Fold this protein.
Amino acid sequence: MRLSESSWSSSASGLLVALSSPSLLILWTYLATCAALLGWVYSKASSASGVSSKRSPLWKAGSLLSLASTWYFMLAFLRYSYVDYVNSSRTLEASTLRRLKDWLDNTRLFEQAWLRVVQGPREWWFSSEICVITTGAWTLWIRARQRQGKLRYAAAYMILGQIVAISVAAALSFLAVAEDTTDASTSPSDDSSSSSAPGKGRRPQDKRQTSAASGVLLLELVFFAAGAWAVSSPPRDLLQILTMHVFPLFLVLLPPSDAPHFTFLAMGLSIYAAALRIRNTLAVLTTLQAQETFIEALWNTFWAHPAQGSISSDHVAVSLLVSSRILLECSSSSTIRANWSGIALASLTPLLCPACTLAAWVAITHG
């Protein structure tokens, strides 16, 4: 009886500790939100792709492998941080829940992880790609599918990418339009040419529509430019970090826009991404030690820390997914130009970076 009372008392005490810790509650809420949103988006993407899609298994496998690789390192980082804190503090005699509370109350997990993956040129070489493709090419790809009416719940994919992993969200967005082709000549908004008869002036409704379209275009340019600025260097201050996360979400919440400016915008983002890749690569080369190769430097960086491993595996997964997406889309194209361009871009993705090649592909197919 005493043992039972003691056990109950210990459990009640642990529960009180858990409930009294905002940090612990935030962590559990974050993990629960990730799981719930992932399940919801996966179900919506699977439904959108259809049961008869031959390509759905590829994107489902890609999303699951991306999740496994990125979150293996993410959970390893949580364990690493916890063990490091316990070993350096005087909480060894406390209960597990008490140690968890103290750890979370005294550790800034996000800051700890983020500062690790942007601390130097080698780390930023991996991390920058996730930032650049999120604020640029992948968001533009989503906008193109929104214009065609092929992708619903775009904001859910963007939020999922930011709290789980970009590679997971990208794979699921590809799943949602698994049978997509490169034919972008038609869209729900392409009936504007018939809105006014030849020889007659525009009606007031047409003028309002034109003004609204111009407003959306202006916002797109401003939001993409803001995102490009935020990732031009490792984001360490609050303004850069907020801009990097918030503006892509603003973009996918905008009404669908017309296609004519897509070529200009996509090529600009592609060139910008390539320029950043070249600059980041040159920065890594300046850090090489005697007899150390570029590949060795990246390999050692990948495995240097769990937080770095998570975002580095995200980088690798995104590269593979983008290459696969471009190849599959070009295989269904009816033009030789798109076929050869797609093969070239998919092959060059590891070198030029997925943000560059995906944006270039959008320019070719949705201009």
